[in-house]
Design brief:
alpha/beta, binds zinc ion, globular, binds adenosine monophosphate, five-stranded parallel β-sheet, 7 strands, two-stranded antiparallel sheet
Length: 268
């Protein structure tokens, strides 16, 4: 089955979005989110795009160029967020400031800050949903990682559409590529000659995720798919949380604790 049909099936089965909603596609410039933008546009969804230039030198310049090219080619409205201008310093600087106080890996810090920005901006832009490029390999890895941490329940909120969080300040995130292998995405992007930055982020060094990816190289597609099947089975058994979401005492964004994850990192 081709990628487009699988994406259509995922959208229908999990009701992740409809054509009346405004979907903001978080485009990184990489192959995964580019394909999400390309396919949702092709399928006639009402999409706009959002890109954060993280200020990571020539790599970020190339990502922004790729995103602009895609949006110009397809006529998608694009919102650019200049991290350095808005936050006063580049992601690299913010990350090293956090790391001087806390021993956290690069991608973990960047991931929390990006999520915070994307949710806040999606709300400002009145989007109904945020679409990201997470694919089957990413999701299987995350589930596996949570098992290694001894906390599979951390995956409870995951899936083709975020569960368990219903709050007016939280924009639901959708993952149209949830059931698609990374290798198929790569092949599709190449075949369709999409503007994509294939190099990995220069800051993505020594993350827990990179270690898990090495383990996954040894897994067959069937094994990866089985991990996702385990996830599907477990998820249906987890009760929807009725825990109230707080608003961060510092920034006002949705938070599980009194202070959100982003402020917990950045305030110190
Ligand atoms: P990552 O956390 O880098 O694995 O990215 C996960 C998803 O977040 C991607 O598939 C994109 O949808 C989104 N994303 C990552 N980086 C950016 C960025 N610089 N600007 C906008 N969206 C991004
Ligand atoms: Zn906060």
């Amino acid at each position: 089955m081709n990628i487009q049909t699988k994406v259509e099936q995922t959208i229908d089965k999990y009701k992740i979005c409809n054509k009346k909603e405004k979907v903001l596609v978080a485009l990184s410039g990489g192959k995964d989110s580019t394909i999400v933008g390309y396919l949702l546009h092709k399928l006639g969804y009402n999409i706009e795009a959002f890109h954060i230039n993280l200020g990571l030198g020539p790599y970020s310049t190339r990502c922004e160029k790729a995103v602009k090219e895609l949006c110009e080619d397809l006529g998608i409205k694009l919102y650019l967020y200049d991290f350095t201008k808005k936050q006063g310093s580049s992601m690299c600087y913010v990350r090293s400031a956090v790391q001087s106080k806390k021993s956290l890996k690069n991608c973990a810090i960047c991931g929390v800050i990006k999520k915070w920005i994307i949710n806040k901006e999606a709300r400002r832009l009145k989007a109904d949903k945020i679409a990201t490029g997470h694919h089957l390999d990413d999701e299987a890895q995350t589930f596996y990682l949570n098992i290694l941490k001894g906390a599979p329940e951390l995956s409870a909120n995951s899936g083709p559409i975020t569960r368990n969080i219903s709050d007016k300040k939280f924009i639901p995130r959708i993952k149209p590529l949830f059931y698609i292998f990374e290798k198929d995405i790569r092949a599709f992007a190449k075949k369709n000659n999409l503007p994509v930055v294939y190099e990995s982020c220069p800051c993505a060094l020594d993350s827990y995720r990179i270690q898990i990816r090495k383990i996954f190289e040894k897994f067959s597609d069937k094994e990866k798919l089985n991990i996702i099947k385990n996830f599907d089975k477990l998820q249906s058994k987890i009760k929807k949380s009725d825990k109230k979401i707080n608003y961060c005492e510092i920034c006002g964004e949705p938070a599980r604790k009194l202070i959100c994850k982003k402020c917990e990192l950045v305030k110190i």
